[in-house]
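Translate sequence into C-alpha cells.
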Amino acid sequence: MKHVNSQLSYFTLILLFVFSLITFNSCLAGRDDNPVIPPVTSPLSRDYIGYGVITASFTHILVDPLENSESLGYLRRGSVVKVIRRQLQRTSDGFISWVFIESEQQGWLKEDVMEIYRNESQAQTASESM
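Result follows.
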C-alpha cells in the first residue's frame, strides 16, 4: 500500500510540475512586447492612448494633421512621445492615420512613423534597443 501511495505522490508531483511549466510559458507568451494599434478614440479610463517610439530617421511635428502643415520642429529615431489622440484623414488613396503627441512640444505626426506601446516603460525599453 505504501508503494502505491508513493507512486501516486510522485505522479501528482510530476503533474504539478508540468502544469506549472505550461502556466509559466503561457504567461511569457502573453507579454506586451509587441506594439499595439491604438483605438480611433482614446479609452475613457485614461487621458492618453499610449507611448510612441519614433521609428523613422526623423519626422517633423506638425501644427495640423495635414501633409503641408507648418513644422514645429522634428523628432529623431528612438524618441519617446506620449500619444494623446488619433485621427483618420480620408485621401484619394484611402486613409492616413495621424496622432496628436506630447513631447517637448505638442503637435501632429503620421502614425506610420512610430510604434505605439501601452506604457512608458515599454516604450523606453524599445527606444533603448534601437
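Note: Strands lie at 50-54, 58-62, 71-76, 80-91, 94-102, 106-110, 114-117.
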